[in-house]
């Protein structure tokens, strides 16, 4: 009876294929960190050791063996040392690869590594590439190709994306037989998720090759396994692979790339296959998903049946994760930062104490990784580096223990409306668009004031014009006692050098008071002849805001300075201007600099015939104020013996200027 049981057990073992499944080893991760530099290698060495202890037939890796696309020499040396230690021995390999190996392993040798007579491979390793160690460059090589060339791993699932458009791929299985068990191992190395998504939805872009029928075997006798390395979480459907894209003939799927350990196989409804997600063997992102215990999967296959056994990894550094919402904590005061620090310190101490408790799944004590996600809505942030200084030597990541975030606002779907105090709670004011609220408030005030004080713009302009005329008369009366205006040819520049001219320039500017009055209403473009009624003048100035567009001729006062040896006489003429002339004349230089430094902004008019060589005229809509002033002075000064001295008009931003040359 004992011999019969041993015989059955030996027959069962000869027909059972034992595979150790792991993904995302990320060798070389944090290799420059003094504390965590060996974490990835220790976990990978433990995986190889578990494979040796459980007498598996081979190791199956699901991508991202290396963390970097171009791993350092130190990382390559450590990886080769581990593989050489556990994989090269004189243990017999009890399975066969019966498929076309030149298609499965497209390298120079084109065969499975344990069949090379120059190497004693006792533990074969089959692996695909991930997104971290994918092939690149002119020769389309990966870091895994280095290990393959060293005959340490069997690199499969490397696709040549040929064809037009999204491309076409043909997935050929590695056919493995052990006794009565036949396994078709499909491998699909990482392809950009968006592209692979389109390929799955494009007919005939992805072709799955099935095993041929021979020696009385049917296609259904093969146990079909697929190992791939793609996004699985559907945050964006186009950047992930839906399980329903996969073919229905599959029996078991090993999903790499996702680091959360979901080792227990889950059946996909309506598809007929199960998916295992071993997760990473080293924590590369300090998130909630990676805080779960790390495992590898021992998969035993016999015929069309399989038996999964999860094995915990004991060498993995402990990782404790917690989430805190400060506004929900009773002992935290938003206005007291010390209370916040004390509360966070208490949480960190509890997590450190929790990680230090001895467990059967840990081989030796290590400094733990601690991460606290803090929702600080309504609170000020804390410097994470300064906070972590007190935990140097107590945790493995003192510089990034804290990570701050704010909870997203959820729109209320119910019919109940929150009151105003609920909408504008103090802790949420920092998320409000304060500028928009202030602008809206100011706009409401302006609108209410405008409704109270509605004044016709035409009346404002009329009053301004009347006030201007009164000021001109007052100024002209005050200047009667001055000396005659004698301007030599040397003193005709705008920057008048005499003190009398400068004081007269200031008296004719009227820039401060008048500009304030004009800015109160609509900005007037200027005034025409003072002989018109003030209301008509105001209306014309208000209606002509842009360039002159009128087709009818109008009378415009032009100041012409006739230059002689010692005097300059002011002439007044009435010129009929068409719309084209008005367009030329309406460009005015608006600056307070002397004329010598002024850029030639406006176009100068040619001097009228019959005038002196030095005479010139500058016509502009905004110079009419100066025209009014000069005409009023000329009328008042006719009775005097000596004409008063008149300085060149000051260049004003509101009224324009008259140029001299």
Instruction: Calculate Rg over CA atoms.
Output: 45 Å
CATH architecture of the domain at 5-312: 4-Layer Sandwich
Strand content range: 15-25%
Biggest sheet: strand arrangement: 3-7-8-10-11-13-12
What is the rounded distance between the termini? 129 Å
CATH structural class of the domain at 5-312: Alpha Beta
Number of strands: 20
How would you explain this protein's 3D organization?
By secondary structure, the protein is α/β, with parallel strands linked by helices. Among the domains are: 5-312, Purple Acid Phosphatase, chain A, domain 2, CATH 3.60.21.10; 319-395 and 397-439, Mre11, capping domain (Translation Initiation Factor IF3), CATH 3.30.110. Helices cover 28% and strands 17% of the residues. It has helices at residues 2-14, 39-53, 73-87, 101-104, 143-149, 193-201, 337-355, 384-388, 420-423, 434-452, 457-478, 499-509, 511-520, 534-543, 579-585, 624-636; strands at residues 16-22, 58-61, 96-97, 125-127, 154-155, 169-171, 174-178, 181-188, 206-208, 223-229, 252-256, 262-267, 274-277, 295-302, 305-312, 319-325, 369-375, 402-405, 554-563, 568-577. It has a seven-stranded mixed beta sheet, with no helix packed on it. Strands 5-4-2-1-14-15 form a six-stranded mixed beta sheet. The chain has a three-stranded parallel beta sheet with strand order 16-17-18. Helix 11 packs antiparallel against helix 13 (511-520) and helix 11 packs across helix 16 (624-636). It is elongated.
């Amino acid at each position: 009876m004992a011999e019969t049981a041993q015989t059955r057990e030996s027959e069962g073992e000869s027909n059972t294929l034992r595979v150790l499944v792991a993904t995302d080893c990320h060798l070389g991760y944090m290799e420059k960190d003094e504390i965590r530099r060996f974490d990835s290698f220790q976990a990978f060495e433990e995986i190889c050791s578990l494979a040796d202890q459980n007498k598996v037939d081979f190791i199956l890796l699901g991508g991202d063996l290396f963390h970097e696309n171009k791993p350092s020499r130190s990382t390559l040396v450590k990886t080769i040392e581990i593989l050489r230690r556990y994989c090269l021995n004189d243990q017999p390999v009890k399975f066969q690869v019966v498929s076309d190996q030149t298609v499965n392993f497209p390298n120079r040798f084109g065969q499975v590594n344990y069949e090379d007579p120059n190497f004693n491979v006792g533990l074969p390793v089959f692996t695909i590439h991930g997104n971290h160690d994918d092939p690149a460059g002119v020769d389309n090589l990966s870091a895994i190709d280095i290990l393959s060339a060293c005959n340490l791993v069997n690199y499969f699932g490397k696709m040549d994306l040929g064809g037009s458009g999204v491309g076409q791929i043909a997935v050929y299985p590695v056919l493995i037989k052990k006794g009565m068990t036949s396994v078709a191992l499909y491998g699909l190395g990482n392809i950009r998720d968006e592209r692979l998504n389109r390929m799955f939805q494009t007919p005939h872009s992805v072709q799955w090759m099935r095993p041929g029928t021979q020696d009385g075997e049917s296609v259904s006798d093969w146990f079909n396994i697929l190992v791939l390395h793609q996004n699985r979480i559907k945050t964006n459907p186009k950047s992930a692979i839906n399980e329903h894209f996969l073919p229905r003939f599959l029996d078991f799927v090993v999903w790499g790339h996702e680091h959360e350990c979901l080792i227990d196989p889950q059946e996909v409804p309506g598809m007929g296959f199960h998916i295992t997600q071993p997760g990473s063997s080293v924590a590369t992102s300090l998130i909630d998903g990676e805080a779960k215990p790390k495992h590898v999967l021992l998969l035993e296959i016999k015929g069309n049946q399989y038996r999964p056994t999860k094995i915990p990894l004991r060498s993995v550094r402990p990782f404790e994760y917690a989430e805190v919402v400060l506004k929900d904590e009773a002992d935290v005061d938003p206005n007291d930062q010390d209370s916040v620090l004390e509360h966070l310190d208490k949480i960190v101490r509890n997590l450190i104490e929790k990680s230090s408790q001895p467990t059967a799944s840990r081989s030796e004590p290590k400094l733990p990784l601690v991460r606290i996600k803090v929702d600080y809505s309504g609170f000020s942030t804390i410097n994470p580096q300064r906070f972590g200084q007190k935990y140097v030597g107590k945790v493995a990541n003192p510089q990034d223990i804290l990570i701050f975030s704010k909870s997203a606002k959820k729109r209320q779907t119910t019919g109940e409306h929150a009151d105003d105090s609920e909408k504008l709670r103090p802790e949420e004011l920092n998320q409000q668009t304060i500028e928009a609220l202030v602008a809206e408030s100011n706009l409401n005030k302006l609108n209410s004031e405008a409704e109270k004080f509605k004044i016709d713009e035409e009346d404002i302009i009329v009053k301004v014009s009347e006030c201007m005329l009164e000021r001109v008369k007052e100024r002209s009366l005050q200047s009667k006692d001055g000396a005659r205006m004698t301007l030599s040819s040397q003193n005709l520049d705008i920057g008048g050098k005499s003190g009398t001219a400068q004081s007269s320039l200031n008296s004719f500017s009227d820039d401060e008071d008048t500009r304030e009055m004009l800015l109160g209403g609509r900005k007037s473009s200027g005034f025409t002849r003072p002989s018109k009624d003030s209301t008509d003048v105001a209306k014309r100035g208000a209606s002509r805001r842009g360039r002159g567009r009128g087709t009818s001729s109008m009378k415009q006062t032009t100041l012409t300075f006739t230059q002689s040896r010692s005097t300059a006489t002011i002439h007044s003429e009435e010129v009929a201007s068409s719309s084209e002339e008005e367009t030329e004349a309406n460009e005015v230089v608006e600056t307070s600099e002397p004329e010598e430094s002024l850029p030639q902004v406006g176009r100068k008019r040619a001097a009228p015939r019959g005038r002196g060589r030095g005479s010139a005229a500058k016509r502009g809509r905004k110079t009419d104020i100066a025209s009014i002033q000069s005409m009023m002075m000329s009328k008042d000064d006719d009775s005097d013996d000596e004409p008063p001295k008149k300085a060149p008009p000051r260049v004003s931003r509101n009224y324009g200027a008259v140029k001299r040359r």
